[in-house]
Design goal:
By secondary structure, the chain is α+β, with helices and mostly antiparallel strands. Helix content is about 45%, strand content about 15%. It has a four-stranded mixed β-sheet with strand order 1-3-2-4. Strand 2 and strand 3 form a beta hairpin. Helix 1 crosses helix 6 and helix 3 crosses helix 6. The protein is globular and about 55 Å long. The protein starts with 8 loop residues before the first helix and ends with a helix.
Length: about 160
């Protein structure tokens, strides 16, 4: 008997809807994806490298301020991982998630004292708590990632086709 772990169909439909609403082509460059998400968000989105020692347990962090959003990505991560983390944070933005308490709890010395003083309206990080919010953002990340991958032409080799 197969056991399926997943999210309710409603979350998948919402994830597909927010990605479809971007009007992306079959294949886009990351800069085009960033521009489309920025337009939907209605304010600039800035991607910043940050030393992974500053946010050791976080692979991506979205900070929304009044006039812009900032996505922090650990500088030591490889390009593929950083791209996926950015797409995950785009998922939070597109799904209009409201924030989480995980950041303040896991990194109190960095975040507990700066929120209102620095004009931060919300923060969302990839949480260790795999909840509905994280699953929904991850679904959007996978859908967005598919638009970044070049479409390979179908192989004429019967052996290669077994792996497609």
């Amino acid at each position: 008997m197969a056991v399926r772990f997943g999210k309710p169909a409603g979350n998948r439909a919402t994830s597909k809807a927010v990605v479809a609403d971007l009007g992306l082509g079959e294949h886009v460059a990351f800069e085009e994806l960033l521009a489309a998400v920025t337009q939907k968000h209605g304010k600039p989105i800035e991607l910043r490298d940050i030393d992974s020692a500053v946010i050791p347990s976080v692979t991506g962090l979205w900070i929304e301020k009044e006039n812009k959003s900032i996505i922090l990505l650990p500088s030591g991560d490889n390009r593929l991982h950083r791209t996926h983390a950015a797409c995950h944070e785009f998922g939070h933005i597109l799904l209009r998630h409201q924030g989480c308490g995980g950041v303040e709890t896991t990194m109190p010395s960095v975040f507990q004292h700066i929120g209102s003083r620095r004009g931060i309206r919300r923060m969302l990080a990839r949480s260790l708590d795999w909840n509905d919010t994280e699953r929904a953002a991850e679904q959007v990340a996978y859908l967005l990632s598919l638009t970044l991958l070049p479409k390979d032409p179908e192989s004429t080799n019967p052996f290669e086709r077994t792996f497609l």
